[in-house]
UniProtKB/TrEMBL annotation:
InterPro entries: Aldolase_TIM, NMO. This is 2-nitropropane dioxygenase. The keyword Electron transport does not apply. Keywords: Dioxygenase, Flavoprotein, FMN, Oxidoreductase. One of its GO terms (molecular function) is nitronate monooxygenase activity. Signal peptide: none annotated. It comes from the Eukaryota.
Amino acid sequence: MPFNTELTRALGIAVPIVQGGMQWVGYAELASAVSNAGGLGLLTALTQPTPEDLRKEIRRCRTMTKNPFGVNLTLLPALVPPDYAAYAQVIIDEGIRVVETAGNSPGPVIKKLKAEGIIVLHKCTTIRHAQSAVKLGVDFLSIDGFECAGHVGEHDITNFILLSKARQVLGVPFIASGGFADGNGLAAALSLGACGINMGTRFMCTVEAPIHQNIKKAIVEAQETDTELVLRRWRNTSRLFKNKVAREAVKVERESKEGKFEEVAPYVSGKRGRQVFLNGDKDFGVWTAGQVIGLIHDIPTCEDLLRRIEREAVAAMKSTQSLLVGEDDKPAEVYGVGKSKL
Ligand SMILES: Cc1cc2nc3c(=O)[nH]c(=O)nc-3n(C[C@H](O)[C@H](O)[C@H](O)COP(=O)(O)O)c2cc1C
């Protein structure tokens, strides 16, 4: 059953589900599979070494789906930042209609993207950052709760609070990100005022995700307690899969007297993390995963996953609705509520 929300209407998609940008995972195979299933797939710009490589990847993705897909542009602080303007230009030249910005204020690219009428979906972990992004003119927000994979922010506010606060104060449509894997989650997000959900870890564990099967199996076997927060000491907290290397990193971080980032840097190397997805050794380096690993029990195709989530969401919404009783259906005696026997 197709959904009708501000997100589905604006993006021209059937299911209000976005596949969040994922470094070393967000290639055309996954993005096109999500879009073909009726959600919004996103290519991850910085997974491509150069803007020209991103252009090729966008073109490759177009051969794999006729449906809309977007690009994630992650603006992380770096000593030598990538050429964001050049990546944004390729996105514009290639006719992409929706961009997920994340990591930092969309300030450096938003003017350029909005001048071309591109829909900007900005992902952030605090209401304050969301409000700043609204001032800059973003179209949608993706509210990333503390449950999420990757950069969780420094305030540890979970989605129960963040989403309701977003509903109360933002005045711009938002989707819920972090901790979603099934249709009950989607129904809950819609009830809290979101117009869709964003999923990362769940999509890693699909047939089309271009990562080693062992890593997908590791996710299936994991519990919600199997993530680790690293780099808190440097206020750059990241939620990672709890493996040997992540545990070591946390140990060094906690025990170091000097607290120099260089001490922990070798453990959190992105290069080694990338290898994990290729060689299937879950302990080879650190890799990103959210607490939602505890809710993932299989490796479906994106098509099967989205159909299942749709069915579950509809069933959950109907079942919640069935809890409402009309005036005439009132039970003769109500204990605890209203007509108390006490
Ligand atoms: C392996 C992996 C890599 C990720 N890389 C990025 C990234 O490069 N940029 C970004 O904005 N978000 C990144 N994320 C976060 C996701 O886009 C999404 O916000 C997050 O996974 C939502 O939480 P969930 O995993 O509970 O669904 C990554 C997530 C995972 C699992």
